[in-house]
Amino acid sequence: MPLYAYKGIDGAGKPVSGSREADGPKGLRQNLRRDSVFLTEVREVKGGTRMAATSGKTTATLKRDVDFRGLFENIGPQDIAIFTRQLATLLTAGIPLSEAMGALSEQSDNRKLQLVLSAIKQRINEGDALALAMEQHKGVFPDLYINMVRSGETAGNLDSVLARLADFLDSQNALKSKVSGALAYPMIMAVVGSLVMGVLMIFVVPQITQVFEDSEQELPLKTRVLIGVAHLLGGYWFVLIPLVGGSYWLLKKWANTPGGRARLDRLRLRIWLIGPLMRYLAVARFARTLSTMLASGVPVLTAMDIVKRVLNNTVLEKVIETARDAIREGESVAAPLKRSGEFPSMMCHMVSVGERSGELETMLEHVAEAYERDVNAKVNRMTTMLTPIMIVGMAVVVGFVVYAIIEPIMQMQQFVQ
Question: H or E segment at 41?
């Protein structure tokens, strides 16, 4: 097995070097990655021939790595967070930007991200700034990300901005995973329960109720309702499925119109349990994003224009637009938010205190932490409430079916006696 000499950066950002046996440069990178070492240079000791460098792969090597498996990969938020953290570590250690991009593109497990990072590295080598190169890949790097990188390049503290951005992405991903994970169990229960009841009504109930129809006796109301529902689902499922699908398509099309989306967003904020959760989630996202951007040197008006896009609610977006216009006219950040009535009064008060004390970024961070805790508490409370409610609901439906079947059987036995 060949022996390789290498140089790299460890997890603490310190330069390291050494030698290790491996079956090739790629195998060496994988082994060092398990030790939290980012490889920047490697050469084979025996032959003395340089096998790889920080300049990255050659075009031929890059073509060999691109196969059809990459077409089925997606670049997720977690991939971007990991890349951001690694790039901040390399820049803090004094590695040049182009060299760091080359090392990260080689070590990425995501083939699509490899291509994106290689393209960005090429643009940097041609003289473009990092933010300008990332603008060519807005599907991967959102406006918030690009503006923060641009402010870091302008201020000359790109490494610290990237570290702050990595913390922000990690917190957002963790919050999103918390909410999605908590809602997964009730959703799975709803889907499975609906499928079970559908099979029961289409295949089982008609077989049982056929006996009652043949007896020609007068059936109880609940049994007649059950038979009618079973006949409707079993006899017209080929009509009901397109009807439900078409209704859903029309609803989605209406929801994509400005008026439809505004009405749905306002309704979402008023739904029991769901509304407060969505509002607190939007407040936490607003505070965390605005704090991160202001701390990174992004102007407040630019930050407000970008922040409204992460709220995912037209009602709250309109409030931010109004607040941005008011700030341009000389007002504070807290005043228009409080006037809208859409943001909690405690959050507006904390923002006002932060503005008066000159520590708006710090206060916004405290707001984000407070409301993220509230979101976690509300998610846990909602999950705790929804689970027994769904179980009781399913039990009521099953009980209705069972009783609707048993009651006429008991009547037939009494008639025979």
Answer: strand 38-44
DSSP string, 195-223: HHHHHIIIIIHHHHHHHHHHHTPPPPHHH
The pLDDT tens digits of the residues spanning 267-316 come to 988 888 788 888 988 898 899 889 888 888 888 888 898 888 888 889 99
Question: Encoding tokens for residue 189?
Answer: 């229960």
- Measured CA to CA, the distance from residue 107 to residue 39 in angstroms comes to 8
Whose CA is closest to 122, among 111, 112, 108, 136?
A: 136
Q: pTM of the predicted model, to two decimals?
A: 0.66
* Closest by CA position to 115, among listed 177, 56, 54, 192: 56
- Encoded amino acid at 302, one letter: T
Eight-class DSSP state of 1:
-
Q: How far is residue 58's CA from residue 17's CA, in Å, rounded to a whole number? A: 24
- What does the buried/exposed string (b/e) look like for 327-366 if buried means 16 or more CB atoms within 10 Å of the residue's CB? beeeebbbbbbbebebbbeebbebbbebeeeeebeebbbe
- Identify the pLDDT of residue 1: 66
How crowded is residue 89: how many other Cβ atoms within 10 Å of its Cβ?
A: 24
Distances (CA, A) of 357 to 16, 81, 82, 337, 367: 44, 32, 35, 18, 15
CB neighbourhood size of 102 (10 A): 25
Cβ–Cβ under 8 Å, residues 294 and 303: yes
Under DSSP, the state recorded for 236 is S
Three-state DSSP class for residue 140: coil
Q: pLDDT by residue (tens digit) across 205-215?
A: 787 777 776 66
- CATH tag, 160-417: 1.20.81.30
